[in-house]
Amino acid sequence: MRNIPPFLLLLIAMTMASCSLVKTAYNNAPALIAWRLDDYFSFNDAQKTKLKLALQDVHAWHRQNELPRYVSLLNTIHDDLSHDVTAQTACQRIESIKSNLQTLQIKMIPMIVELAGTLSDKQLQHLQKKLEKRNQEWKEEWWQETTEEQREVRLEKSEEFAEKVYGDLNEKQINLLKQVIAKSDINPAIIYAEILRRDADALDILKALRNLASSNEEKSQLVRAGFERMQTSPNAAYQAHIETVTQLSCETIASLHATTTAKQRLHAQQWIEDYKTQFTQLQSK
Questions:
Q1: Residues 6+ apart with CB under 8 A from 125
Q2: What is the pTM of this model?
Q3: I need a surface site. Which of 19, 179, 191, 272 has the fewest CB within 10 A?
Q4: Per residue in 205-219, pLDDT tens?
Q5: Is pLDDT above 90 for 124?
Q6: How distant, in Å, are the alpha carbons of 120, 121, 174, 230, 233 from that of 112?
Q7: Are 209 and 219 in contact (CB under 8 A)?
Q8: What are the distances in angstroms from CA 57 to CA 28, 53, 176, 219?
Q9: Exposed/middle/buried for 15, CB within 10 Å: 0-12, 13-18, 19+?
Q10: Whether 114 contacts 57, CB under 8 Å
Q11: What is d(CA 70, CA 66) in angstroms, rounded to the nearest whole number?
């Protein structure tokens, strides 16, 4: 189940990361991200100009500094796929991905501080309405009325992603996913409460960033602290829940990979190789 962060603090970073998987999207990432953010904030012309220039700078930095890190990580994962892996190894790769994202978050702080300081009450109200709409869509996607329906959705999405990596799954592998999902119910109420907490936190930060009496360093620390609360939530119930879910996910990755055939592992390696090729080519464009 997705762990949705507050919009301004993380959407740009997440969009950048996802767009980088496709060459055309990556090369046009500043314009695509600006368009998505404008939908949430309804920027004026001056804000759009600031955002465009800032995103272009971050994009150039990302291409030069982060894409090589992605290629290195993909090389490591490519090697992992040739043999069985432990749950610990799977968790280490997940932590590496999170580390890359956190680096991008920190790079975005000056832009967030500058842009947030220009937001009007009307724009923050617009953002809040957009977040409420997004949250309703999340509930419709993930919070079905019965546990059985929730499991069906999780199985469908898990199977869909696994087959992107490995190709067609066999009956044994599908049953493995069913068994894991059946004994590891995710609590949508706990996750939804965290979504609401993060939305409120983001809105509070944005309001605070408009305080003219605060220094840029103080404002940067506010944003940094917001990122840290996303990494380790003050909501103890959520934090315990997500740590359990993450560990189970690592164990599932290891267990499923152990059942794969030579053909499936070659499929997975080629899947990784295709992305590695795209990242490598993008570094020189």
A1: none
A2: 0.87
A3: 179
A4: 999 999 999 999 999
A5: yes
A6: 14, 17, 43, 16, 21
A7: yes
A8: 13, 6, 46, 20
A9: middle
A10: no
A11: 6
